[in-house]
Specification:
The strands form 8 sheets. This protein has a 5-stranded mixed β-sheet, with no helix packed on it. Strands 3-29-28-27 form a 4-stranded antiparallel β-sheet. The protein has a 4-stranded antiparallel β-sheet with strand order 4-5-6-7, with no helix packed on it. The protein is globular, with a radius of gyration of 21 Å. By secondary structure, the protein is mainly beta. Strand 10 (about 130-135) and strand 11 form a beta hairpin. The chain has helices at about 10-15, 250-260, 265-275, 355-360, 370, and strands at about 30, 40, 45-55, 70, 75-80, 85-90, 95-100, 115, 120-125, 130-135, 140-145, 155-160, 160-165, 170, 180, 180-185, 190-200, 215-220, 220-225, 230-235, 240-245, 280-285, 290-295, 300-305, 310-320, 330, 340-345, 345-350, 380-385.
Amino acid sequence: MRIFSNISILLFALCVGCSKPSGDDRQDAVRLHPQQVVNVVPASELFEVLRYVPLQTTSDNLIGGINKLEYKNGKYYLYDEVTKSVSCYNRNGSFRFQISALGSGPGQYADVDAFMLSEHFLYLADASKKKILQFDLSGRFVSEHRFPYYYTSAAYIGSDRFVFYSGYHSNTDAEGNVVRDNIIITDAGFHPVSTSLPFSGSIQSTSILEKGRNFSLNGARVLFWYPFSDVIYSVSTDGVQEKFFIDFGSQQQALREKMALAGSGARSSEIALDGGYCDILDALETGTHLYFIYKQGAYYHMVFFNKSNGSVRDLSQKIMPGKPPIPYSNDLDGVPYYPMLTSFGDTIVSYADAFQLIDSGDSFPLLSSVVDSLDENDNPVLILLKLK
């Protein structure tokens, strides 16, 4: 999840000049009435648990955590930030292979800033070394590509095309021209073929953003969102298109204008916090729903938008020290929170640590057949969910 360590007033000034039309004028609008109140419901009103998939544990594939996961052709590919490795598991959770190649030589990486799956290859992107490593889907190293652009996240969009998000950082192209676009689309050799979503050249010096997820996948569909925008985009080989406009109400634009007038610094941050400025932090789409998280002042909101009938559930919880702001109580299996990793069709893939399920096992009959085979030190358990 992306967190803001500072607010750039220049970004807000930019947004004032390019604000979106009212949600009433758009068929793809998700209309909200944000309130800074606690609105919590039981998880059973939101989710149906389809299946638990324990990931096989061996001495060669211990997982410290799951930071990203993709599902393709009946297999799960996950990235673990702790071990800086990518592991592959079959549909039933049996282990297939792991890529762990820390180093500075060919086929090695210092860090993994993104991993992407095409129809035939797996790619690990190391921004610090300005290279992208290509492996086949059995984990064997194939080749190495140079990619000198700065980016914070990336995704595969089909037909040997990739998309990179620059995070409001300017880049320089092969001809020496400065590129101030947030989106860079490349070919299979990672040569840029198009750019979009330009930004002001002065933004990067005053905006401080931590890295986070800006793309989510459902099969071949790719969603994209970025700071200081009320739009969730779809990205494909045709480019970047607006897909959902999140209508936070008239107060959103009014807050932007107040913050622009206040100037940079603590005052603009106070206006955002006290006034309840809304900013999208995460999003995921299924066949039936759009799910997204946004922050408003001192509250986190989870929104469940039914694409077929237009109904919206906007749940919220106050941010408190030492307690995750989760606006549902889990009466299904007791897991504190379902991280939404990826989706395919109508299925969402989440996970829980083995010890969390073991601790809840006696209280939830749903877990009885799962926890009997678990040890508290086992690898995480994938949880397949469906939104109601």
